[in-house]
Amino acid sequence: MKFLSFKHEGQTSYGVKVKREEAAWDLKKVFADFAEGSFHPKTLLNGLQQNQVVDFQEQVRKAVVAAEDSGKGEDYKVQFSDIEFLPPVTPTNNVIAFGRNYQDHANELNHEVQRLYVFTKAASSLTGDNSTIPNHKDITDQLDYEGELGIVIGKSGEKIPKGLALDYVYGYTIINDIT
User: Fold this and answer.
1) What is the mean pLDDT of the chain?
2) What is the pTM of this model?
């Protein structure tokens, strides 16, 4: 499933991409009419946190099928051309990042790569697809950018054995890291 968060007609919502269409199911609306029980997460992050990941995906699948079967499926879809993309999820804490993780970039910056280093970025620095990124001309005359793979952790863990690490990954997203 390909999840997203967006703004449509002034309202913030989240959804899942419709297969073979440039559209998303508006899951706030879908869950309002077709959720099982009291499952009505306000954001994608709330949905992921309320249930185990597999349960959330199953709740989404069942509700979307019910919306399709209602004969009013189009009422629950929003076209990509009509939405403003937001960050898929906005964590409550900073984003954890790893630097100096490949030699070519370190060479470009004249850094030695002896080991990774960990740093954070404010959650407020996240933005959606096609958003304008400020140039910060007041503090710099050069921005650096890198395409990065973002990993969304799906559940809490501690001292996780290496062989089980991927069991804690919910999904992936593409990040344009601006420095």
Assistant:
1) 87
2) 0.81
